[in-house]
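Revision sheet: structure tokens.
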Amino acid sequence: MRRYKVWFPILLVALIMLSALVGCRRQPEVGSNLNDDPIQIKDNDTPTEQFFCPLDGLPVTDPDLINRRPLAVIIGNIPTVAEPTGVGHACLVFEMLAEGGITRLMPVFVHQDAPILGSVRSARPYFLEKALEFNAAFAHCGYSPQAKQDISNLKVISLNEFYLPQVYWRVRTKKEPHNVYTSTERLFSELEERGLLMGPSPVQFDFYDDDAGPLGSGAHKATLRFSPSYVVEYEWSEAVNGYLRFVNGKPHRDEDSGQQLVAKNVVVQFVDGKVIDPEGRLEIKLVGQGSGRMFQQGVTYELKWAKHGRTEPTQWTDRNGDSIKFARGQSWIEVLPYGAKVIWE
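Predicted:
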């Protein structure tokens, strides 16, 4: 009996210690709250990789979109007769004179699409020189004699309405030749069928960071006089953080959506040019070098341009010789003859 009384306390203590050890080894239940939990890794903590368009600097989640071949389209632009449709979706837009003191537009598309695009007009050789800078396919409805020859000689990827009736359609309520329309979906599909869809732009512009901006004199309004009958104005708007576009004193609107066109950057390029035939067709000299002016974020400054060959990209620099930067968003590049009146305030 004495031996039992001696060992019983010892066994009791051993049992208590064993129970404590087993309790410490118990695994926490799923969902239990522990103050010293290790760092939890959640699936949504993995950052999504972001890409940026080389021509407008906007973010793009699908890299295949910015690896598409740029698409340049000739668009009619006659006030009250042929208002443009779809150009607001382009990365940048070129505007140059055609016959009769009016202009045509050439939007360049990469990552955004335009479901309705028109009216599509005929090609001129100087538009080809701009399109080839970006390795772009060229959509048009016919051509001038010189442009027809250049399309062959320069090996342009031509998407001519004459031979692609499935890519274009005609609006019966509009008069010819201002009734030809297409869409970027149809144009890119045609490139894909030919095995030519992928071909990224060799041109990549530099863009300002979110906290940076240009230095220059104030320019809340710019007036560009292409001809006595055609005047373009840009007015800076804090509400849209860009320049609202006007033509002949009226807001320039997309014909389909009714929205006023807005430019983040307005680049003026002065060039030499002349009339070359009785039809009034022009020769515009884009190869060489010259001067210009940038309008962005409510300021303006002088720039210089240089282009060393018909298919070579245009180099844009400030007066110090440094490459210019763009605000992120759509740019309009306005090509005007030397002597054209450009004023700002």
